[in-house]
Specification:
Elements (H helix, E strand, L loop, with lengths): L7 E2 L15 H13 L5 E3 L10 H15 L5 E4 L5 H14 L3 E4 L7 H14 L4 E5 L6 H10 L3 E6 L4 H12 L4 E4 L6 H6 L4 E2 L6 H12 L3 H18 L4 H7 L19 H13 L9
Parallel strand pairs: 1-8, 2-3, 3-4, 4-5, 5-6, 6-7
Helix pairs in contact: 1-2, 3-4, 4-5, 5-6, 8-9
Length: 293
């Protein structure tokens, strides 16, 4: 277990792919260094990493690349959830054996409260590192999260992004009562509102690490007004574009070699007007067109 609670900006790293749809190790290493240089406090490997589109061998490959490149400079959290308890336990043990600092699991859809409790208890009993609730979509809710944390020794964090996110974060903080630490997610869409309600961190995309760290630092210094202005000026314009623009932002900066997602992608290409707006946002933020290096 980590001595101090993890908190701060923990971007969920994307998985770069080359033109043949293979994991681009060099680009992933570049991304790790880019985010650490920006001052992030940790990393996540989760659904924005396209985990469901990776084979089991590729999951382990991505984790190992990130662990090796990070070299313990910041902690790493990896999603190990599965609809099946036995599979979630297996993934969790594999991740712990690789050397991650914490694991994160999404509650099985449609399970009863009793089944949720048994699911997390099994994972907690299988590893000796902290575990995050990943609350997205169907919400466990504060009271059940509290009960699970009381019964499962290693349940000590929660990433909460169920709608409405600020309310759900506030509820989780209320019921955590110091037993588990709450972070937000959902691309940082409600970051300021979550911080006001006691969130201790955020797990956004890795496309704007400098802006998120700047916002976090300003908030921690007690300058709520500056934090809100940074969010409004440097983060919100990208969130408003929507779509899967985050790899494109990293590509334009030369961090990753291609902006490819594995097909099928859930987002449609930007229409002409939105593309023009996105280009204008990138220009204003100093994100230029990619020049191969």
């Amino acid at each position: 277990m980590t001595a101090e609670p993890m908190r701060g900006v923990f971007p969920i790293l994307v998985t770069p792919f080359d033109e043949r749809d293979r994991i681009d190790e060099d680009s992933l290493e570049n991304l790790v260094d880019y985010c650490i240089d920006a001052g992030v406090h940790g990393f996540g490997i989760a659904y924005a990493s396209e985990i469901p589109k990776l084979t089991e061998a590729e999951r382990l490959q991505v984790c190992k690349i990130i662990i090796d490149r990070t070299a313990k400079r910041v902690p790493i959290v990896v999603t190990t959830g599965s609809p099946a308890t036995a599979v979630a336990v297996q993934y969790s043990r594999q991740a712990a054996d690789l050397g991650v600092d914490a694991i994160m699991s999404l509650p099985p859809t449609g399970a009863t409260a009793k089944q949720h409790r048994a699911y997390f208890k099994a994972i907690s009993d299988a590893v000796d590192i902290p575990i995050f609730f990943l609350e997205a979509g169907d919400a466990l809710g504060g009271p059940l999260m509290r009960q699970i944390a009381e019964e499962s020794e290693n349940l000590r964090y929660a990433k909460v992004e169920s709608a409405p996110a600020p309310h759900k974060v506030g509820e989780a903080v209320e019921y955590s009562a110091g037993l588990f630490t709450v972070m937000g997610g959902a691309s940082g869409t409600h970051l300021i509102e979550e911080l006001r309600r006691g969130s201790q961190g955020t797990m956004p995309w890795p496309s704007l690490p400098h802006a998120f760290v700047k916002t976090w630092d300003q908030w921690q210094a007690g300058d709520e007004e500056s934090a809100q202005q940074t969010w409004l000026q440097e983060i919100m314009p990208v969130i408003r574009i929507g779509g899967l623009v985050h790899k494109e932002i990293l590509y334009r900066q030369g961090i990753i070699a291609t902006p490819r997602f594995r097909e099928p992608t859930p987002a449609l290409p930007l229409d002409e007007t939105t593309q023009r707006e996105f280009d204008q946002v990138c220009e204003r933020l100093g994100i230029g067109q990619h020049t191969p290096g």
